[in-house]
Automatic annotation (TrEMBL):
Span of the signal peptide: none
Similarity field: Belongs to the Dps family.
Entry-linked CDD domains: DPS
Naturally occurring in which organism (per UniProt): Rhodanobacter thiooxydans
InterPro entries listed in its UniProt record: DPS_DNA-bd (IPR002177), DPS_DNA-bd_CS (IPR023188), Ferritin-like (IPR012347), Ferritin-like_SF (IPR009078), Ferritin_DPS_dom (IPR008331)
Name under which the protein is recorded: DNA starvation/stationary phase protection protein
Highest taxon, organism lineage: Bacteria
Molecular function via GO: ferric iron binding; oxidoreductase activity, acting on metal ions
Length: 155
């Protein structure tokens, strides 16, 4: 059955391309945050270990929400590491930095994801896609808030 949600196919595909980048940023940030949760050490261990767990759980749920929105638009969602690596602007961390560098990388990652969300919001608004705009506004606010909270640890 053909999709008929009031958004032209070319517009749905354009929005889905932006959402795919947001999904890649979200998943990359999830992986990095989970790794840092496992590997953090230092005087802030307990608080960072707990904070990172809260953050990676939120990102895991967000990735599903973004992927399902792509599918709602009748486009297939990317789902491999190689696809995410091509789509995401978040740099992979192959080592185990000290805790301050971990926090700094996560601030940077959330700021990148916020910028991607902002671009996605523009595309959704241009397409008249209120459903995506609503979801992405929430993601944007979450990334900005998390970046602020993490940044506060470094002052």
């Amino acid at each position: 059955m053909a999709i008929s949600i009031g958004i032209a196919r070319k517009d749905r595909e354009a929005v889905a391309r932006h959402l795919s980048r947001l999904l890649a940023d979200t998943y990359s940030l999830y992986l990095k945050t989970h790794s840092f949760h496992w590997n953090v050490t230092g005087p802030q261990f307990n608080s960072l270990h707990t904070m990172f767990e809260t953050q990676y759980n939120e990102l895991w749920l967000a990735a599903d929400e973004v992927a399902e929105r792509i599918r709602t638009l009748d486009v297939f969602a990317p789902g491999s590491y190689s696809q995410f690596a091509k789509l995401s602007a978040i740099k992979e961390e192959a080592g185990v930095p000290e805790w301050k560098a971990m926090v700094g990388q996560l601030v940077e990652g959330h700021e990148i994801a916020a910028a991607t969300a902002r671009d996605t919001l523009k595309a959704a608004n241009a397409a008249g896609d209120d459903g995506t705009a609503d979801m992405v506004t929430g993601r944007l606010k979450e990334h900005e808030k998390t970046a602020w909270m993490l940044r506060s640890l470094l002052k």
